[in-house]
Amino acid sequence: xxxxxxxxxxxxxxxxxxxxxxxxxxxxxxxxxxxxxxxxxxxxxxxxxxxxxxxxxxxxxxxxxxxxxxxxxxxxxxxxxxxxxxxxxxxxxxxxxxxxxxxxxxxxxxxxxxxxxxxxxxxxxxxxxxxxxxxxxxxxxxxxxxxxxxxxxxxxxxxxxxxxxxxxxxxxxxxxxxxxxxxxxxxxxxxxxxxxxxxxxxxxxxxxxxxxxxxxxxxxxxxxxxxxxxxxxxxxxxxxxxxxxxxxxxxxxxxxxxxxxxxxxxxxxxxxxxxxxxxxxxxxxxxxxxxxxxxxxxxxxxxxxxxxxxxxxxxxxxxxxxxxxxxxxxxxxxxxxxxxxxxxxxxxxxxxxx
Length: 354
Known about the structure:
single chain; mainly alpha; 3 domains; two-stranded antiparallel sheet; two-stranded antiparallel ribbon; 12 helices; 30% helix; 5% strand
């Protein structure tokens, strides 16, 4: 009898699971917005590029097998009933990996490219780098670009904070997790139109094609929210007193947040790589692929292999061919290899008659 009693006590909560699932599907996700703190996120999702995807596709649902997921939702429900809520709700650092895996279900090509590129670098690779840590002490500002979603200070992540070491992660479970997940550069709840398929829908001609996707944004760990690309201006870089000609590509506004110059805005200072010389005015994304950052085809993207000198540009003495070259591909000038004067451009050879 006692076993039956507990069965009947547990039955009503169990019946709520399929009932809630049916309610969610019937409402098209609107049932999520019945909690007022979720309303703003729901409204931006309705006009975003992901509006055809259910909330559960990215955030998990009632049938998600992870017990921790449901326990976290139960805690949020208790906080909601108590009136102790965050508006809008924020994605916890502990849930990032799950959401990134769900991104990969639809964006498989982009995910694989990111995973094979430098932006998928792990906590262990960044914060346990002996060569770096011996030259420069770790500080909170490191988290601005590396581990911007980490909930805490550098003292909560690494010890000791000196240049002697040995260093270790205070949260060893983070060792193989990426410091720059998808949400570091992309905002999911952002107004925008789904990408058109020109082989099915009306083609959008070149001048009307967008340069940047509406999801591009920098996650600001101070504000705990993404800052849209349109709010990230391009700096006016200088070479000495000379203003440098800048590419108008707005996507660079995101690159410059981490690959930034010092306060002097001098090219090559700090982590800056603004191109000058033969490549001045070229966008970062003209040479670096979006997610892999691969530069193998960068030369061929803009010009044939032969330079004005008639040499194969991929075999020239630059850091494109050899990282130890003294001619950095970002700053190389014709005069670097021709100190006595740049030779005139060779005229193309006339074709011989058959």
